[in-house]
Amino acid sequence: MKLIVKNVSMKFGDVQALNEVNLDLEDGVYGLIGPNGSGKSTLINCITTLIKQTSGTITFNEKEVNQKYTEYQNSIGLMPQNIDGFDDFTGIRFLYYIATLKGLLKEDATTQINRLVKRVNLENVIHRKIKTYSGGMKQRLLFIQALLSNPKIIILDEPTAGLDPFERINLRNYISEISDGRIVIIATHVMQDIESIANSIILIRDGKVVKNGKPEELIQSIKPYVHEKMINESDLPEYRNKYKISSVSKLREGMFIRYLKEEATKQTQAIPSLEEVYLYYLT
Ligand SMILES: Nc1ncnc2c1ncn2[C@@H]1O[C@H](COP(=O)(O)OP(=O)(O)OP(=O)(O)O)[C@@H](O)[C@H]1O
C-alpha cells in the first residue's frame, strides 16, 4: 500500500496553505505535526479529496486519487475534529447513519458497531443522545465511526483535543492497536499524542514539510543544539533573549534551564526530547 503526495501546493486566494509538499506513505503511524495554520487540515482535505490541490498529484497504489476513485474513497476512515449537527442523535443512531453512508449492510454494520462500541467502553451510553456526552465519549464515538468498514487509511484530526490525560492515554492505546497493516495519519500540535506511537513524524510549517523522519532520527538531528545549565536568576532574561528556552526549573542553587543554541558546546549538551524537536523546527 502506497500513498504518495507529490509536489502538492494549495492556494486560497493569496494564502499559500501548502507549498510543494512531498510525502511517501506506507503502512505505519505518521504524526503530522505543525502549529495552528501550518496547513495540516488543508493537507488532510487534499488527501481525502474533500478539496482539490492547486497543483501536484496524490496517488494511492499508483492511481491518482479523486472523488470518482471509489475504491480509494472506501479505503479512508476520517476522524474529524468535532461532531457538529448530530447533537440530537443517539450514539448508536449516529454510528448506523455513518455505516449506511459507507455502504455497509445492516448485518455487517451491527457486527462492527457492537464490536467497536464494546472495545472503547461506550456500551452504557450508546443509546443516549450525543449532546449528553462528555468530551472523551464524543472522541471515542468519532474514533470508532472512522473504523467502520475497516478502512486501510485512517486519518485522525487532533484526536485528543480536550481530553484528560487518562482518556488521552486510552485513545493512544486504541490507535496503536488498530495500526497494523494500515496507514494512520495523526494531525496534531501536541507532540505527546504521537510520542510513543508514531513510526514517523512529518513536521509542517507555513505549508512546507520542514523535516520528516523517525522520532529517533529527529531527536538525533538536534542533539548538538540542546543544552542544559544552572544559571543565576538574574541572567534568565539574557538567555530568553538569545535562545529558545525549553524549560526552566527554580532550584535552591539557582535556575536550571534547557535551551536551544545553534552552536554545539559539548559541556552543556543534553539529550533532546521531541518537544524540543518541535521547538527547534517549528518555532
Ligand atoms: N477555505 C479557506 N479559505 C482561505 N484560507 C484558508 C482556507 N482554509 C485554510 N486557509 C488558510 O490556510 C492556512 C492553513 O490552514 P489549515 O487549516 O490547513 O492549518 P492547520 O495546520 O490545520 O491549523 P489548525 O492547527 O489551526 O487546525 C491558514 O493560513 C488558513 O487561514
UniProtKB/TrEMBL annotation:
Residues 3-231 form the ABC transporter domain. Keywords: ATP-binding, Nucleotide-binding, Transport. One of its GO terms (molecular function) is ATP hydrolysis activity. The keyword ATP-binding applies. This is ABC-2 type transport system ATP-binding protein. It comes from Breznakia blatticola. SUPFAM superfamilies: P-loop containing nucleoside triphosphate hydrolases (SSF52540).
